[in-house]
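Tutorial, part two.
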Amino acid sequence: MEESYLNRIEIILVDTQDGANIGSVCRAMKTMGLTHLTLVTERTYDENRVSTLALHAKDIYQERKEFRTLSDAIKDSAFTIGATRRRGKLRKMSAYSPSQLADKLASFPEGKISIVFGREADGLRDDEVNMLSAIVTIPTSPLFPSLNLSQAVQIIAYELFLASRPYKDGMVSVNHERIMKAGEEMVSHLDNISYFKWDEEKKWTAQLLEDIIERAGLSESELQRFEKIFRKMEKIKIYKDGHEQGGNDEEV
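Running the prediction step on this input gives:
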């Protein structure tokens, strides 16, 4: 899934002014599994500045496509998105967040997907945004809302990479059905050591344990360790009772 999802995505840079920024974009792309770079430009870039910032992602630049106009660059794209923080009548009234865009692309039909980034100084022009079918905006603090070009690419690429995975990295919480079974087991261990004085107490305790586990968002391994505490509690109680009984028999 990861390869097929990411392989259809291209990053388009419009009239980037500094080759060093292109190099940084190459690095941001490759760390997240994106390999298709297109430049819309009439500039000639200093390859040393590109290479210095790209490091081991220089191949992304070497295999780039170049066009003179944005319309030529996107003509074979199935879905075109502009990255911009400005909205308005001439610039689309609504926008995807990076995570919303990633979810959208995960279910989008086959075809090339182009995500377009503008100039370092002033981004994409109104006419360029109007060529595209949607925009994506990265939420930022009003204290300083402007992002560096490679930072913007990195954030969006990261969300795309997460959406390409068969599951998201990190802890996965157990589901409700599993929690109910765990609650039943833990209460049964308590019941076996005569913890409860009446049936209603057993019901309330089960509900309390299940609610706590669900709110805590435990992983399977954490829940298993939690269950083990109750199993061990029962075994210790049985062993202790048996040991004490044996000691009394000897005294008699």
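The chain has eleven helices and six strands. In part three we will examine how such features are distributed along the chain.
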